[in-house]
Specification:
It is a single chain. Helix content is about 45%, strand content about 10%. Strand 6, helix 8 and strand 7 form a beta-alpha-beta unit. The chain starts with a strand and ends in a 24-residue tail after the last helix. By secondary structure, it is of the alpha/beta class.
C-alpha cells in the first residue's frame, strides 16, 4: 500500500512511491517563487506550470522509469513552504492585501505571490521562518518515511536535496549552515544526516551570493554534502553560473552539457552548430573578425596548447572542490527552442521537472558512488572553441 505524507497545504497529499520496493535514495524537492500563485485552481491550465507536488510526482516517475533491476528506487518528496508566507501568517496576508492597489488584479496577484517571495526571503524574519519550516518538513518526512516503509534491515536511504529557482537558494543556505557547531536544534537536519547530493536548477543563487558579498573560497565545498550540481536551461532568464563566481577564469569555459539521454547521449548536432556560431560571434566582438577566423585554425594546429593547459587547470580546480565533478551543467535545447531563444525563455524556467534528460542526469549522479578526488589530468577546451561542447 502507498503511504500518504501531507506536505504544505492540508488538502495536498504527496505520496510515497511503490513502498513495496524500499528506496535507496530520498530527494527532497524545494519549490521556488510563485508556488502559491501557480497552485491556485484558477491557474490550472495547459500554459501553467501547475502545482509543485504534481511536478515532483511526474519527476519521480521519470527518474524511475528506466531503472534497472539492480538499481534502487529513488523517492522524490515535495517540500512546500509557500504557506508559511501566504497562509499561516494571517497578519502578513492582511497587510499585503491592504496596501495592494485594486487595478489590474491579476498582475497585482502575480506580483504579490511571485516577486514578493524573493523579497520576503531576504527579510531576516521570514528567511528564518522559511528555513525552519523547510528543515522541519524534511526532518518530519525522513522520520515518517523510515517509520512507515519496511526496509527489511537494509541500509538507511541516502538523502539528497533539490532546489528549484528560489528554492535552490533556500536549499543551499540550509546545507551551508549545517557547518556550525552551535546551530540551534530547529535548524539542524535530523540525526546530523549528510546530504548525498545538492541539486540546484534554474538557480539565482550566484546572484544572491554576489549580493551578499560571499568570498570565492566560501562557496564550495559544503560540509556534510557530497557534490553540488547547478543545472540550467540555456534560455532560463533566472539561472546563473556558479563556477565563474569561484574563479573568474571559468567564464571562458563552457558549462558542461547534460547528455542527451533521450536521444542516445552526447551533444545534438544543432547544439554543436549553435555553440560554434556563438563562439565565433563572441570572438569577433572581442578581438575582431580576423582573430576570430584565425583562432579555430590555431586550435586545430595545436598552437594554443598553453591556453588549453590554462583552462584545464581551471577546471581541475573546480573539480577538486566538487569531488571530481563540474558544478555548472547546461541542458540541451530542442531545435525549435534553439531557433527561437526569446520565445523559449518564457517557459524555460518551469520545464525542469518534466525534462527526461534532467531526470536521467539526477538519477545517474545520485546513483554514482564514486565520490573520489579530482582527476586533475583531464583537460577542457575554452569556450571560444567549438570543441568545448563535447560531453
Amino acid at each position: 500500500p502507498r503511504s500518504p505524507l501531507n506536505r504544505g497545504w492540508p488538502d495536498v497529499s504527496a505520496e510515497f512511491g511503490d513502498s513495496a520496493v524500499p528506496a535507496s535514495d530520498l530527494i527532497f524537492c524545494i519549490h521556488g517563487m510563485g508556488e502559491h500563485f501557480w497552485s491556485q485552481p484558477s491557474q490550472q491550465n495547459a500554459g501553467s506550470p501547475g502545482a509543485f507536488v504534481d511536478s515532483v510526482r511526474e519527476f519521480r516517475d521519470l527518474i524511475n522509469s528506466n531503472r534497472s533491476d539492480g538499481e534502487g528506487r529513488i523517492e522524490c518528496i515535495p517540500i512546500v513552504w509557500a504557506n508559511i508566507i501566504h497562509e499561516d501568517d494571517t497578519d502578513l496576508v492582511g497587510r499585503v492585501r491592504d496596501i495592494t492597489l485594486r487595478s489590474v488584479p491579476l498582475l497585482r496577484s502575480l506580483a504579490n505571490d511571485v516577486a514578493a517571495d524573493v523579497m520576503f526571503y531576504q527579510s531576516p524574519i521570514y528567511e528564518t521562518k522559511i528555513r525552519k519550516g523547510v528543515i522541519s518538513s524534511i526532518n518530519d518526512a525522513v522520520n515518517e518515511y523510515m517509520a512507515t516503509v519496511d526496509h527489511c534491515g537494509r541500509a538507511r536511504p541516502r538523502v539528497s536535496i533539490l532546489g528549484h529557482s528560489l528554492g535552490s537558494v533556500i536549499a543551499y543556505d540550509i546545507v551551508k549552515i549545517q557547518d556550525g557547531d552551535d546551530l540551534p536544534p530547529e535548524f539542524r537536519l535530523t540525526s546530523n544526516m549528510d546530504v548525498h547530493v545538492l541539486f540546484l536548477c534554474g538557480s539565482p543563487l550566484p546572484l544572491f551570493l554576489t549580493c551578499r558579498g560571499v568570498g570565492r573560497s566560501d562557496i564550495v565545498p559544503l560540509a556534510n554534502c557530497g557534490r553540488v550540481y547547478n543545472v540550467f536551461n540555456p534560455t532560463d532568464p533566472v539561472a546563473y553560473r556558479i563556477e565563474p563566481l569561484i574563479d573568474p577564469d571559468c567564464k571562458a569555459v563552457n558549462a558542461h552539457h547534460v547528455p542527451f539521454y533521450s536521444g542516445g547521449g552526447g551533444v545534438q548536432k544543432h547544439v554543436q552548430v549553435k555553440s560554434a556560431v556563438q563562439s565565433f560571434a563572441e570572438s569577433a566582438y572581442e578581438s575582431g573578425v580576423t582573430n576570430a577566423l584565425i583562432k579555430p585554425v590555431k586550435n586545430l594546429l595545436g598552437f594554443d596548447a598553453e591556453e588549453k593547459k590554462k583552462y584545464s587547470e581551471v577546471v581541475a580546480k573546480i573539480k577538486k572542490l566538487n569531488r571530481s565533478e563540474r558544478i555548472d551543467w547546461v541542458l540541451q535545447d530542442s531545435f525549435i527552442e534553439s531557433a527561437g531563444e526569446y520565445v523559449a525563455a518564457v517557459a524555460s524556467h518551469c520545464k525542469y521537472f518534466g525534462n527526461p534528460d534532467y531526470a536521467s542526469f539526477v538519477r545517474d549522479k545520485i546513483s554514482s558512488d564514486a565520490l573520489g578526488s579530482a582527476d586533475e589530468s583531464e583537460s577542457i577546451e575554452p569556450a571560444e572553441s567549438a570543441d568545448a561542447i563535447t560531453s
